[in-house]
């Protein structure tokens, strides 16, 4: 009977530990989802729109903001330079119009590049979210198994208590 009692206590502790792990995983998943939402809703990642991101992901967001701004600017400049070399802007009526066309092209190329970089970051985060979800599913499966074992142990304990109770000649 004492063994069944200790088994019930052990399983109860394990279930509580697993439930705590599940809560931590859910919290982590929500933080990554918040980052993904912020990433999707913003144009250029800056310090201003990084502010609402969970603390654990601020460093990642800041690095991504700096990298994506620099990389998209460089790529846009390359594309504009290629078009200039091909004579795409030489037909403009004056230098001001030519510069406005170049600036517009740069902005368009930068936006396209930023969109692609944000999609890459979202894909990476999506994989992390899938991994967390898989871990949550494993934990939840273990919780169900432990709860089934706990119920079995409780029934065994109840039977042992019933069988060990004195009958006083009544049974």
Question: Which labels suit this protein?
Answer:
171 residues, mainly alpha, rod-shaped
Walk me through the structure.
The chain has 171 residues and is an all-alpha fold. It has one domain. It contains 4 helices and no strands. The chain has helices spanning 2-41, 47-50, 55-85, 95-164. Helix 1 (2-41) runs antiparallel to helix 4 (95-164) and helix 3 runs antiparallel to helix 4 (95-164). The protein starts with a helix and ends in a 7-residue tail after the last helix.
The mean pLDDT is 88
Tally of strands:
0
Succession of helices and strands: HHHH
> Strand-residue fraction?
under 5%
Q: Cα distance, first to last residue? A: 20 Å
Radius of gyration equals 30 Å
* Largest β sheet strand count, sense and barrel closure: none
Number of domains: 1
Number of helical segments? 4
How would you describe the shape? rod-shaped
Structural class: mainly alpha
Proportion in helices: over 70%
Task: List unreliable stretches of 5+ residues.
Answer: none
What are the SSEs and their pairings?
Layout: H1 2-41, H2 47-50, H3 55-85, H4 95-164
Helix pairs in contact: 1-4, 3-4
Task: Describe this structure in a few short sentences.
The protein is mainly α and 171 residues long.
């Amino acid at each position: 009977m004492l063994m069944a009692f200790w088994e019930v206590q052990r399983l109860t502790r394990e279930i509580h530990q697993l439930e705590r792990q599940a809560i931590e995983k859910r919290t982590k998943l929500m933080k990554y989802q918040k980052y993904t939402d912020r990433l999707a809703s913003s144009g250029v990642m800056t310090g201003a729109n990084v502010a609402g991101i969970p603390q654990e992901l601020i460093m990642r967001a800041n690095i991504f903001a700096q990298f994506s701004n620099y990389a998209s600017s460089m790529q846009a400049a390359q594309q504009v330079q290629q078009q200039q070399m091909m004579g795409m802007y030489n037909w403009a009526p004056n230098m001001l119009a030519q510069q406005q066309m170049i600036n517009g092209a740069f902005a368009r190329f930068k936006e396209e590049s930023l969109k692609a970089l944000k999609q890459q970051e979202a894909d990476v985060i999506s994989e992390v979210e899938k991994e967390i979800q898989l871990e949550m599913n494993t934990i939840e499966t273990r919780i169900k198994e432990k709860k089934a074992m706990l119920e079995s142990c409780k029934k065994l304990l109840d039977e042992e208590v019933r069988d060990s109770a004195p009958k006083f000649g009544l049974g």
